[in-house]
Design goal:
The chain has 232 residues and is an alpha/beta fold. It has a 5-stranded mixed beta barrel, surrounded by 5 helices. The protein binds adenine. Adenine (ADE) binds next to strand 5, strand 9, strand 10 and helix 7.
């Protein structure tokens, strides 16, 4: 049976999975085991930030032998095309707080830009399409989804100037605090991965208040996409 590793940094980002996949404790603190769509699902509440995310991947790989990793949750929107609760699917990820970032490119084997697994990206795109079709048929509001670059760092971005810099420097759609570390660790382990984020704020001066208001609903929306992927 396929083993899927799901990573969310915060309770809000894993609660849907734990509930809907009937997850139970494992021997490892913060990792829960459930099942869905004929798959074993290992859900890790990693804690916030890059180191926690990297530890989560390594534990899921070493202890639970997962076949692939999905990291889902919330993000600050950077692209001016995004609205709150829109979905961003990772095409590639990099760090915005690794300076100078090209050290990584000049010192192989792991470069600064980490490409997500193409097939998993495609599955996420299809999941968004299917969900939107269903929502439309039910007369409900649909949502936008985008595929592009996500930048991660150990900081909650709450400055329009910093957000602009991330847009200019990386052509990033959104920023968060774990994705690139999940990508990096998954790459090192040769495990396919994708990151799926829903926009909770615009990484500007209103970000703290917006995060507070939208964290739960945005985390649920990202989980909604993941569930659709796993149902197939
Ligand atoms: N996650 C959600 N919003 C964020 C922001 N503005 N900065 C970093 N991580 C986030």
């Amino acid at each position: 049976m396929k083993r899927i590793g799901l990573i969310g940094a915060m309770e809000s980002e894993v609660e849907t999975f734990c509930r809907d996949f009937n997850a139970v404790d494992t021997d490892i603190k913060g990792i829960f085991k459930g099942s869905f769509g004929g798959k074993e699902i290992y859900i890790c509440k990693s804690g916030i930030g890059k180191v926690n995310a990297a530890i989560a991947v390594q534990r899921l790989v070493d202890i639970f032998s997962v076949d692939c990793i999905i990291n889902s949750g919330v993000a600050g929107g950077i692209s001016e095309d995004l609205s709150k609760l829109d979905i961003v699917i990772s095409k590639r990820l990099t760090y915005h707080d690794f300076n100078p970032i090209d050290i990584l490119d000049r010192n192989p084997p792991y470069g600064s830009m980490m490409e997500a697994d193409e097939k998993m990206v495609e599955k996420a795109v299809l999941a968004c399409r299917t969900l939107n079709k269903n929502l439309e048929e039910e007369g409900k509001d649909t949502f936008n989804s985008f595929v592009g670059t996500i930048v991660s760092g150990d900081c909650f971005v709450n400055s329009a100037q910093k957000a602009k810099q991330l847009r200019d420097d990386f052509d990033a759609l959104c920023t968060e605090m774990e994705g690139a570390a999940v990508a990096h660790s998954a790459k090192v382990n040769g495990i396919p991965f994708v990151i799926i984020r829903a926009i909770s704020d615009f990484a500007d001066e209103d970000a703290d208040a917006s995060f507070e208001s939208f964290e739960t609903v945005a985390a649920k929306r990202a989980a909604f996409i993941v569930k659709e992927i796993l149902s197939k």
